[in-house]
Specification:
The complex is a heterodimer of chains A (341) and B (276).
Chain A (H helix, E strand, L loop, with lengths): L1 H9 L20 H7 L7 H35 L16 H8 L1 H34 L4 H9 L6 H11 L6 H8 L14 H11 L2 H12 L3 H9 L4 H12 L1 H16 L3 H7 L15 H11 L3 H29 L7
Helix pairs in contact in A: 3-16, 4-16, 5-9, 5-10, 5-13, 5-15, 6-10, 7-14, 10-13, 13-16, 15-16
Chain B lengths: L7 H24 L20 H9 L2 H32 L5 H11 L4 H14 L7 H4 L7 H12 L3 H9 L4 H12 L1 H17 L2 H6 L8 H13 L6 H36 L1
The chains are: A mainly alpha (341), B mainly alpha (276).
Amino acid sequence: MATTSTSGSASATSTKVGSAPSSTGPDGRAPAVAGRRAGRPKRSPLAKREDRAGWLFISPWVLGFLIFTAGPMIASLVLSFTDYQMIQTPHAVALDNYKQLFDDPRVLKSLSNTFVYAAMFVPLGTIVALALAMMLQRVGKAGGFFRTAFYLPEMTPAVAAAAMFLLLLNGQQGLINKVLGWFGINGPNWTADPNWLKPSLAIVSLWTVGGTVIIYLAALNGVPKQLYEAAELDGAGPITRFFRITVPMISGALFFTVITHTIAAMQMFDQAYTMFYGPQQKATASDESLVYMVYLFQNAFQFFKMGFASAMAWLLFVIIMVITFIQVRIGNRYVYYHGER
Amino acid sequence: MTIPWKRLPFFAFLTLGTIAFVYPLVWLVSASLKPRSQVFDNRLIPEVFQPSNYVQVWNAAPVLRWLTNSLMVGFMAAATVTLSSALVAFGFAYFRFRGRNILFGILLSTMMLPGAVTMIPVYLIWNRLGMIDTQIPLWAQNLFGSAFYVFLLRQFFLGIPRELFEAARVDGCSYLGMFRRIALPLCKPALVIVFVFEFKASWSDLMKPLIYLQTPEYFTMPRGLKQIIDAFALSGHYEWEIAVAASVIAVVPMIILFAFGQRYILDGVATTAQKG
């Protein structure tokens, strides 16, 4: 180390590339680098060494990004303008695939199914998780046991959970309808009645909401107690305190989970595919449970319409970007970050 | 000792919640021991014990192979992603090289990208390499790090006082040495979190095995379970006791993992969100 820095100052032949003086603030860096930051046109060999080392460390990701993200993104965009089907060479078909997106009723159907599922699961999941987290917070230390219990379903592989719910949601004999029966409710035929397939999927997803509970609990524990005490002194009731203190103070966590849940919901696949699709079910399955990723998967890997599936993928990408953009715009207006951002 | 009366309703609700989250799993285990006619039956203690369901699953499918496959794939996926993400995260956390901020921005934005966009070309790459129907595509991409874990680990590395690294440098420690001797040991809990999360994700994954695996011998547990459900339960034979027993087999390793890594996992979930 010592040798490099001495030999470095001797050979002052460092190139000037990219030495634009971005900032002059001293920030406790090694002298050589501090010199660079102060705007000296030369890059010391030490800085160059650090450059090289930094690039070396991140090179796995750079490589992976080029091979498995950037390259495939371009490729799938190109494919989306072709009729590629694996067996023959692809032909350019201009915008045909994109036109077909709007002509194929199953694309729109699967898209609306996905929206309906997301519109059920995301708000419901947020409310249930928040309610449980708030109760967990009230019981203090004893919450540890419940926290563990709530997270247990998250450890269950989605395929196993889906199989389990096929039984629990069974219309005639399932446990869920039996419990509903205690309250005089005649439960629907969840997994067979086309109207109830999407609520079934939402219930399966709702079962694995424990991780969100833990996230909210951590956020709730970060809210200063004095705020509640002060509000109580001012005569604020529990509902006012909830909407005026709790929600704004944990809005960062709420925002984060709503965005990630929405993105995940738009790509839901495992549960729907396990419960309603498979080799022998193609004909009988109702389109009511056809979520977008299932249809995309079928097009790509069962019908081998890879050009069309690529167009579907890009549509999904655009939709997710638009939704996230809207959420971020709304979020920026309301979300309170604890002073750090 | 005073009874916390005011908290009692909360305990009651939380207990209800616990039942909703845990009871289905307990019931699943019980159902896996029931004869076909009673699988749907809601009693917790089976009227007739039929452990032979497991023998039937064992005979019907190479379950042990699937379990070891999942274990192998899960281990490879978790080990490679932990190491590569840590390397990349250290690169982003410690060094101030040209292009760093732009690259880190790109890295963050890739988290938004739905897997569907790259799924088909990536499949074509593995196809070209002759890797279809092998387990390599299930984990090999993890050699190149994963954006979310890089982001997470970078946050942890940034928490290490810079003086530690400077001191090591003065003592003649190489960059790789700083990574191995300072950064990694100090962030062990974070590394465990990454490993466990990725292992869990790999164990649950259905899509990739569906795309890449054809020979039942190579299946991972979820892929095999889907096969069993299709063949025995959804095919019109309604042999649910087989599907249920196989489901239990798929769940148990994860429960064991949870039992051992519970503290890491739960704290990990809480911190990841706060760092995120």
